[in-house]
Fold each of these.
Amino acid sequence: MSAPHCIANPPKLCSSYGAGQVQQLGGLNCYVSGSLDSKLAVLLVSDVFGYEATNLRKLADKIGGAEFYVVVPDFFHGDPYVENGAKPIGVWLKDHVVDNVSKDAKVVIEDLKAGGVTKVGIGGVCSGGKTAVDLAKIPCVEAAVLLHPAFVTLDDIQGVKVPISVLGAENDETTPPKVVKQFEIALQSKAGVDSLVKIFAGVTHGWTVRYDEDDKVAVKAAEEAHQDMLKWFIKHLY
């Protein structure tokens, strides 16, 4: 079951938003942005609200501005979670289990690499963090960033084989700071795996993509997290 923070403050959605375009990859509709001929790709895995979230697409455009080929797939096949919709979150999650999202993500990555991409980074938001860590354990990506992750366990973190950054929130019922600190300790003990773990003060779960645009403090914290993510991918994919 998802914690309340996972579905709080739903984002704005817009199917036509962003500087990029929607195209098919791995059999899924994907919002793509940035340098589409780049050999370096970043896959962004959304939270339960899906790939049409405007702030998520803003983030994709921002990363794409650094010459990455950025892909945000519709892992929910046109069925994102809708607040007060027909499906309560528990029912919705059963219809969209993380294992299936991770399988679909692998297919998208295979499609990217078949098209000439040589390195892939993955960024996971909330429940998307579970998919990101799953792929970092195989590994079929070269770097990972988890943004206020959900469903990620200490065992997951201990199995990571590629450079990983975990960006957590001070006020988070889903993955509280004490758990993020456990992740940090586990990663520091892994020789040969670069890591960065950071807890952002004064913010809540979801702040990187579900911030209030009129809240200057929230916007500033989100932008800092976005820059941390971008720097991580530049460091480990370039």
Amino acid sequence: MANSGGEWQRARRRKGAARREKQCQADGRDFGNAEDKSRIQRRIAETVAELRGEEFWLEWKELLSRFLASEITGTSENKGTLENDSSLRSCGLDCVCYGLGSFSACVSARYQLAMLILLLDTLRVPPVQCSMFDPVFTPAECEVLQALGFTVLTENEEGKRPVSRPTLFYLIHCGKALYNNLLWRNWSPRALPLLTIVGNSFHSIQERMVRRDLKKNYSFISDVIGACEEMTLPCSPRFLDVFSDTALLRFPPQRLASLHPHTWTQASEPDYQHCEDLEIIQRDQGQPTPTHLDTSL
């Protein structure tokens, strides 16, 4: 990413892991002139319009608006859609998006960006309250995001962001370490309820891994999965490569209270030194290898 001050490399991945991650990255072209950036913005707008007409987006909109209205206002009542909930409009919901991918070169990343734009519009979250980071972003992509109103981070947080108010994390098809780091940084019965995640199903992660490996390498996911409230988000067959296995995750206080008190004392920072299938871009470790350019731009 521009001005990150470091180099990057993709950590080793287990065979097949890329199927659940971004399928392409930037090819090194900057798309830096005004005409190219205008073309990228036009394609984003076209993709937003396309998704807006999809039936599964309307289902997402209905589910997420009801779900988050209850979560953020701190009530269990059905508040209806957010368009009619004035109390939620002023709640100050933050948003963080990691690992989106190169949306100028990757169709999947562009659809995921379009979905984020639709979600923020539905939730009445100004784009400036959404922080974005991916080390594969080119300088031109950073400028496009800023033109759309987003806040572009210049340092890799590796998911280790503390929260002090309700925050939506948009982490579709990100690596397990990113989720594990986010949980570690907010590992308390007071902070975890402030997190809402649109991302990979934790139950699917558990099903695909040997439990002892999940506990060893991603202990925070393993420890909280029994207290996580998960709702699968629908996906059109046409968009399986883009939104498959995506769920809405949250951590209700009453469920966290069921965990053993000893759970909260095991909060050493993850290091992943012995993890063979790490799926995260770490800071100061080289540049990711570009693949699968979308030449339709």
